[in-house]
Amino acid sequence: MTVSDGLKNRVALITGIGSDKGIGFAAARILASRQARLAITDMTDRVHDCAKSLVAEAAEVKSYTADLADRVQVKQLVESVVKDFGRIDILVNCAGMVKAGEKFVEINMADLDPKKWDEDIAINLNTCFNATREVLPHMIKHYYGRIVNIASVTGPLVSNPGSAGYSAAKAAIVGMSRSLAIEVAKHNITVNNVAPGWIKTASSTEQELVGAQNTPMGRAGKPAEVGNLIAFLASDESSYITGQLIVIDGGNTIQEYKGPAEFYY
C-alpha cells in the first residue's frame, strides 16, 4: 500500500487556511495530491482564494468561513461539511496563533491583561477543542478518524518570554489529545500532535528567521516539510500511532547550545 492509497477519497477538514504560504495550505496541497477530498476553513474570505489555488491543481475542495472560537459557528461549519461531503475522516486543527490581520505581541505575565490571556486561550486552545468536539460524533459513527493537531515546540517543550498564553494553550492541546486518544482508540480514531519549530511562513519575524539559522540544520523548515508529516499522520499508514507529540524542528530542541555556530560547532 502506498501513502496515496491511504488518503484516496478521504474527506479532510483543515482549519486555519488563510494564506497560501502557511502550514495549513501546504498540508491541504499534499493531501489533495494524494487524492483526498478537502474542506478548508478560515475566519476570512481569503480561504476562498486558497480554495481556487487548490482547485487549479485538480483537487476536490470546498471552502468555508467560520470563527472557530464561536461554538455556534463551528457547529454550523461541521454540519455544512457533512452535508456537502457525507462524512469527515480527517481533521487537521491548524487554526491559531493570532487573529487575521494582527501580529503576535509578546507581553510578560506581570503586564498581561486577563482579557488578552483569555483571547490567547480561545484562539489557540478552544478553537481546537471546538472543532474536535463537533467532528468526533461523525468519526465515531463511521468507525474511522484521524485527528492531527498543530501544536508547537513552544509550550510542550520550550518557551519564550512574553508567551505565557500561547505556551499554555499549546501545552494544553497535547494533554487534551492524550486523554482523547485513549477515549477514542476503540473507535478506530487516532489523535496526534505535530510540534513545529522555526518554520518559514508569511508571518515569520526577523527574530524567528535568525533563530532558524542557529538550528543544527542551519535553516528554517518549509511548510511542505510539516505538511508531509501531517499527511502521514492523516493516512492509514499511521494506524498504530496515537496520543503522540512529534517534533519537526531541524534538531533545535535537542541541542543545548543555540547561539551562532562559529562560537561552538
Description:
The protein has a single domain, classed as Rossmann fold (3-Layer(aba) Sandwich). It is built from seven helices and seven strands, in the order βαβαβαβαβαβααβ. Helix 3 packs parallel to helix 4. The chain is globular, with a radius of gyration of 18 Å. The termini are far apart.
What layout of secondary structure does this protein have?
Blueprint: E1 11-15, H1 23-33, E2 37-42, H2 46-55, E3 61-65, H3 71-85, E4 90-93, H4 114-142, E5 145-150, H5 164-184, E6 189-196, H6 206-213, H7 223-234, E7 245-248
Parallel strand pairs: 1-2, 1-4, 2-3, 4-5, 5-6, 6-7
Helix pairs in contact: 1-7, 3-4, 4-5
What shape does the CA trace take?
globular
| Class from secondary-structure proportions | alpha/beta
Helix content: 40-55%
How far the N terminus sits from the C terminus, by CA atoms, comes to 42 Å
Beta-strand residue fraction: 5-15%
Q: What is the H/E order?
A: EHEHEHEHEHEHHE
Strand order of the largest sheet: 3-2-1-4-5-6-7
Oligomeric description of these chains: single chain
What is the arithmetic mean of pLDDT? Answer: 93
Number of helices: 7
Low-confidence stretches: none
**Tally of extended strands?**
7
For the report, how would you describe the main beta sheet? 7 strands, parallel
CATH architecture call: 3-Layer(aba) Sandwich
**Rg (C-alpha, Å):** 18 Å
CATH topology term: Rossmann fold
Number of domains: 1
CATH-wise, what's the superfamily?
NAD(P)-binding Rossmann-like Domain
